[in-house]
## 1
Amino acid sequence: MVGIGALIFGILLLSWLGGEPAGPQQVGVADLLASRTSPSARFGSRELEVAGWYAAITTECNGDTGGADPTVSWLQRECPVRVLLPQQPAGSVSAAQLLRDGLRLAAPNGEPFPPPTALGSGTAGLEQLLFTGHFDDPAASKCIPDREQTCRNTFVVSGYTGLIR
């Protein structure tokens, strides 16, 4: 019995000394939006997983195509509006409301996003999603000066999965 107890103690001690588990840190979108520190200052370009409700508007937005520099247009483009919200959106909301209440998302190829659905239905309304990515993308330094901070605090997405309920 003493041998088994010592073995279990040894395993627990080794796991404690091993530090934090490998993999990206998981953060809720509500935590990111409530913090007084900007996401880029708080996390730098470290890979994270951010959980929240996904919403996108492609038809209502009138934003530009991201300026003349095609290498950064994907990051500073204002349309489509893609955000993660702390709560499921109810009914119809405007692009301005989504940007005010949510965390802005972008991706270099525009592909790692769920297909657009009406807010409150489909992928956007059935479950929270877990997006993997980072803030403070190197391309942010090429954004026009008026948008550089917005670019730095945009969550650059590399993928997503359904959230464990």
## 2
Amino acid sequence: MYPNQIIQLLQSTPLEPRQFLRYSFGIDQLSPEEILEEELNFSYGTKCVNLLSKLLGFRKQTIRSWGNNPNFWNSYVQAALSQKELKRVSDEKYIAPRTTALEFIEATLLNASSPSQRIKILTSTNFRGSCLKLLSETLAISERTIYEWGRDIEFSSMPKYHQHTLAYALAAYCKRQHLTLNNNFVVHY
């Protein structure tokens, strides 16, 4: 699959943080008055911080510093996890999954390829550029930033918090492709 096809598969209508949280707590189907009542409940803010902290692997203090309208990674988590799974995240001890850049690239760009296709892809002069574009579009950051993470496709200097976003993006990708995560796709918990 080409990077553009993967990116199109991953992209969905951007979800505002407030809408995502409403979806996560199952209040998105309530009337506007009932939603407002839920959101004004004193414990709602704490529940939001706890959920985002677990899903993204950030400290609660970091989440609180985002203010009332955090700008986080669009809707990979919603695409990867059902409402039922999100409910378990907030009820149980949850560790955000992680996937390295190399694992993400292998699972998306190389997974369905035959050995001869893999060699063709890997030896292509556009391969590194394809990797940069795929990661840039998935993480919504510049290719230049990704380039600075390392000269090889391991991107070993990539900040750990991006591994969480890649894990959710990979899970969403697999779900949309009707694939299951197996031993070839390493998602760290």
